[in-house]
Amino acid sequence: MHPTHIPTKLASFSECWSPKIVASLNGQEVKLARLSGAFVWHKHDEADELFYVLEGRLRMEFRDGSVVMGVGDMLVVPRGVEHRPVAQAEPCAVMLFEPVGVVNTGDAPRGELTNEAERI
Amino acid sequence: MHPTHIPTKLASFSECWSPKIVASLNGQEVKLARLSGAFVWHKHDEADELFYVLEGRLRMEFRDGSVVMGVGDMLVVPRGVEHRPVAQAEPCAVMLFEPVGVVNTGDAPRGELTNEAERI
Q1: Total domain count for chain A?
Q2: B26 contacts A28? CB cut-off 8 A
Q3: Which residues of chain A lie closer than 8 angstroms to B72, CB-CB?
Q4: Could you say which of B22, B30, B75 has the minimum Cβ distance to residue A1?
């Protein structure tokens, strides 16, 4: 049983909007992701999604408003809620907690920002 | 929907071995806990438990060895595995990710270190 050093894992990749799995437990996954600019509007019908900011600044937009998060801020986006993450200060990186198998673009049409999470 | 600033939450309490819930999602909870000295040997038969070190240094003892974790290290202790957290450099604090309702002392007899998690 070996610890995973999160800063080292985060430093091991540079691509944005391509979540990497760093831990799995209880049917959930912990992922790391780098963000740049604006993502697509989407929702996850069956999954609450937790964002924990590790680097930079993230604006989470909702249809009726937005919140800005800095390093150390955590936010749960409930299932079914449309949201759009926007990196507001870069480099921007987050830790995600969500159920196994969540696709980053949710219910939005698959596109160039759609990436299956890989384990690192 | 408001972000939770984890360092502020962590600074809001000082008691050790008394996990505080800071987020809930998908039947899971994110908790913060301060550690001091050695905890009790225990296991969780139905829950994998994630430890993410926020402050200090934590030694996780198993029946057949141990690992030492510093800030930024993450470890999943699988269900059924006996473990004993020991704060090795204090103040020591961790973020936990585990199913709703996990009791900190697991299968060990309830004692003075047993604490129900409260939401902060």
Answers
A1: 1
A2: yes
A3: 5-8
A4: B75
- pTM value is 0.96
Q: Maximum Cα–Cα distance for chain B, whole Å?
A: 45
A1 falls within a domain: no
What local confidence, expressed as pLDDT, does residue A13 receive?
A: 97
- In this prediction, residue A66 carries a pLDDT of 98
Distance from CA of B111 to the nearest CA of A (A): 27
- Can you tell me the distance from the alpha carbon of B118 to that of B83, in angstroms, rounded to the nearest whole number? 23
Can you give B3-58 as a three-state secondary structure string?
CEEHHHHHHCCCCECCCEEEEEECCEEEEEEEECCECCCECCCCCCEEEEEEEEEE
Chain A residue closest in CA terms to B24: A76
pLDDT tens for each residue of A22-58:
999 999 999 999 999 999 999 999 999 999 999 999 9
Does a structural domain hold residue B113? Answer: yes
Cα A94 to chain centroid, rounded? 6
Are B33 and B49 within 8 A, CB to CB?
Answer: no
Determine the distance in angstroms separating the CA of A69 from the nearest CA of chain B, rounded to an integer: 7
Contact between B70 and A24 under an 8 Å Cβ cutoff? The reply is no
CATH number reported for the structural domain that contains residue B106 in this entry: 2.60.120.10
**Domain range spanning residue A16?**
6-119
